[in-house]
Amino acid sequence: MRIFTKKLPHPDLPAEEKAQLLQNTEYQEMMVESTFMYLTLDLPTAPLYKDEKEQLIIPQVPLFSILAKFNGATEKEYKTYKENFLKRFQLTKLPPYLIFCIKRFTKNNFFVEKNPTIVNFPITNVDLREYLAEEVQAAHTNTTYDLIANIVHDGKPSEGSYRIHVLHHGTGKWYELQDLQVTDILPQMITLSEAYIQIWKRREEDETNQQGA
Questions:
Q1: Could you tell me the pTM of the whole model?
Q2: Exposed, middle or buried by CB within 10 Å (0-12, 13-18, 19+), for 200?
Q3: What is residue 76's three-state secondary structure?
Q4: What is the pLDDT of residues 61-75, one digit of tens each?
Q5: 157: which of 29, 78, 89, 112 fits an S-S bond (Cβ 3.0–4.6 Å)?
Q6: Distance between CA 84 and CA 193 in Å, rounded?
């Protein structure tokens, strides 16, 4: 993965001083190559208020909207104690398996908050070719992924519980596991959950041909 980083001047500085700083080398965009164990997907900020019926609004977001973080063009601001940076990300390789970690939890000095936003995602045929750098796309014959496992967090951060949805490859059926309980589940029900961690498997050539037959 390529990570492009640009340091930002302090927002309280006068405009002229900001313009001068942006000419310095340390404020120019830098690129580094980095390996990754999983991809962190950022959720949009959840609404703080109830709707007119006094019910909490649970927003929804498409998977491809939060995957845009890795398209090489989308910039996001990252803040540290002393400095601010703009970063953008671009994939240079797609492994046989991909792990998505949907960032639901944020921690401050007092407590942990959970974002309940529902991510709308298909469980098959997720093509990630557009997130690859153009010069490496030709080296990737297969860029389509299918979901094989989905870990869900239910409830509050401190009192919640976990469930896992697992695809049985031999039968093509989905099962839900929680503690010692195992039940079958319809695929369309999986997409309604508060997905937290997902495992995706790249479709190989023979699998692609079978799907298209």
A1: 0.85
A2: buried
A3: strand
A4: 999 999 999 999 999
A5: 112
A6: 34
